[in-house]
Structures are given as structure tokens and as C-alpha cells.
Amino acid sequence: MTPRKEATSDTDCSENFxxxxxxxxxxxxxxxxxxPLFLRYYPAHRLVTCQPQGTLDDFxxxxxxxxxxxxxxxxxxxxxxxxxxxxxxVAISTDHLFEFARNRAKQFQGKTxxxxxxxxxxxxxxxxxxxYASLMENTLIQxxxxxxxxxxxxxxxxxxxxxxxxxxxDPWTSEAFxxxx
Length: 181
Prior knowledge:
By secondary structure, the chain is α/β, with parallel strands linked by helices. A hairpin with a 6-residue loop joins strand 1 and strand 2. The chain has 4 helices and 8 strands, in the order E-E-E-E-H-E-E-H-E-H-E-H. The longest helix has 17 residues, at 58-74. The chain has one domain (28-170): STAS domain (Transcription Regulator spoIIAA), CATH 3.30.750.24. The strands form 2 sheets. It has a 6-stranded mixed β-sheet with strand order 1-2-3-5-7-8. The chain has a two-stranded parallel sheet with strand order 4-6.
């Protein structure tokens, strides 16, 4: 496992890692994913995004976890971008967030680390993202909290315009995950 630094701001997650060849010239293209409506997959970047809207509560957190577990069982590794900026309310219990993080670490079936960038400009969302990132330290899920999209994009090694999540996703196809799904 890769040791993690405690993240106190965007810049704390700036470790240099091996990078893929530049993908900055590829078009922004996403697919709706089966599951909660706020999930997208960007095949060119092997990126799954989650942009929950409304109230983040224990039930929504459990939905996200169940979906991730089912996808991780049969598919290749993918980066994750969680955008908490569209939340209007946060109603999760601290105990549930701790349990969620503990379960995610146990349930993750990968053998190599994956990156999860958590983004929110608002302090409450950023604090939750930072808490989750700190709970995932010393696991194969490398999580880092960001208050700006450009820092998250750099850390994930993808173009920042992808993280705007403004494209109109195409319908899901099983070929997106190599014929699975």
C-alpha cells in the first residue's frame, strides 16, 4: 500500500506519480451509468464520476457504496471523481461516514491502488470529503479532497474540462466496460 499524506488543502495531494500519456486532446464524452442518476463514465479517461444532488444522507451514501461494489467486482480499475458541489443539504451521521469508509476499504476488490478525487468548494462538503480522505489513508483507495477542479484534474491526470460534468451523457452500453454490465 502507498503511504498517504494527510490532506489539509488541495495542494497536499500533489505527490508525483507515474502518469499516462497526455489525454488532453481527447473529446469530452461520457455515458450514463446504470444505478443512481448522477453517475457517468468517461471511457477515454477510465473515469467514473458521481455528482449527487439534493440531500446527501445515509441512504444515498449506501446507494453509492452498493453500486461501486457491484461495478468493482467485474470491471477494470477506474479513477473516481466525486463532485459534492450540487448538494443542498448534508444529513449523514458521522458514525455512518466512518462505517462507510471502513466498509469501502474492506469491500474494494482491486489489487492496485485507485484514485478518488472528492471535490467541493463549500466548506461543509469539503470537510466531509477531507474526513473521508483521511479515513481512507493506508488503503488501496487513494482519496484526496479538493476545493478546485484543476487540482483534482491534475491529480487524476485528466483534462480539467472533463470535471466540469457539463456534457450530455450518451445512453449506457455494456461495451463501455469491455462487454460487462
